[in-house]
Amino acid sequence: MDKSQYVEILNAAIEGEIEAHQFYLEVSQRITQPHLRDMFAAFAQEELKHRQILENFRDNEKARLAFATVPDLKVAETVDAPRLSLDMKPADAIALAMKKEQAAMEHYTNLARACEDGGQREIFEQLAAMERQHKHRMEQAFVDIGYPEVW
User: Fold this and answer.
1) Which CATH number among 1.20.1260.10, 3.40.228.10, 1.10.8.60, 3.40.50.1820 corresponds to the domain 3-150?
2) Alpha-helical segments (H) within the chain
3) How far apart are CA 132 and CA 69, in angstroms?
4) What confidence tens digit (pLDDT) does each residue in 93-107 have?
């Protein structure tokens, strides 16, 4: 993969963070439950931080990404993605967010597998780890909402 393709992929990742920010912000404005509203607003802010990280990384070749490894709970793989609507139930909103994070994680994982350049592969693996962190948090929230007996 040449540098222009690589930058193009990072630009697409930045666009993905912008879209995710907008999605979480819109969901936070639609949900009436304060806990969920605050959680989605926090996710929206995280997406802004991720955008900044990616822009810095794109613009500074010496920058490195490092995200903690979290387990993949695989909860997202057990549910269908609901449609975004004004009257979504909290569990559905979280399920949709979970599926979006799963798709992003899988996208970066596939890019890493396709990369021949070790440095680029490492970056895509780190981007997948970043998305796995979000997916993990969404899955935990989904379990908390979907299975209130765990409270």
Assistant:
1) 1.20.1260.10
2) 3-30, 34-59, 90-114, 118-146
3) 8
4) 888 888 988 998 998
3-state secondary structure of 87: coil
Number of other CB atoms surrounding residue 58 within 10 Å: 16
Q: How many CB atoms lie within 10 A of CB 118?
A: 8
State the virtual CA torsion across 103, 105, 111, 113 in degrees, nearest 10. Answer: -120
How many Å apart are CA 133 and CA 51, to the nearest integer?
15
Compute, in degrees rounded to 10, the torsion defined by CA atoms 81, 82, 85, 89: -120
Written as six digits, the tokens of 146 are 């979907």
Handedness of CA 126, 112, 22, 55 (dihedral sign): positive
Residue 33 CA, chain-centre distance (Å), reads 22
Identify the band that residue 86 occupies on the pLDDT scale cut at 50, 70 and 90.
low
